[in-house]
Amino acid sequence: MKYKILLLCSLFFAVCFFVSQYCYINRSASLPRGIYLKTSRAIAKGSFVVFHPTAAQQPLVSKYVKNTPLMKRVAALPGQAYRLPPASDTDSKGRVITPFSPKTGIVPSAQFVVIGDTKYSLDSRYLGFVPQSSIMDTITPLFVF
């Protein structure tokens, strides 16, 4: 019995270590909720990325999350034309939020357009472009629900 408990505890700690070192957990509605595995893939249109908001983006982001990287899908790469999906003038709690402008154009060099799955997602509709230097990892779904 002692060995079974020891084995279960060891397995639990091994899984926790693996997740903390090699995965991200998404609890927001901006992408499907679940566990995402870090990858070494190049950033491509449709990739999932994890990024820290820039200093200019931080005042807006800090109203919603504290010291948390954001996870979004890449909608446009540097040099590509983009058209942002419709944005809301209020957030999910009815507070005023200012959408990014321009809504269409060409993505600047070393910048990306990122989009979440909900109209309230803190993405390029509100934050604008995400610099490549802010992107920490590319990720792929491991277990989503």
From TrEMBL:
Gene3D superfamilies: Umud Fragment, subunit A (2.10.109.10). InterPro entries: LexA/Signal_pep-like_sf, Peptidase_S26. GO terms for biological process: signal peptide processing. Residues 5-80, 97-138 form the Peptidase S26 domain. GO terms for molecular function: serine-type endopeptidase activity. This is Peptidase.
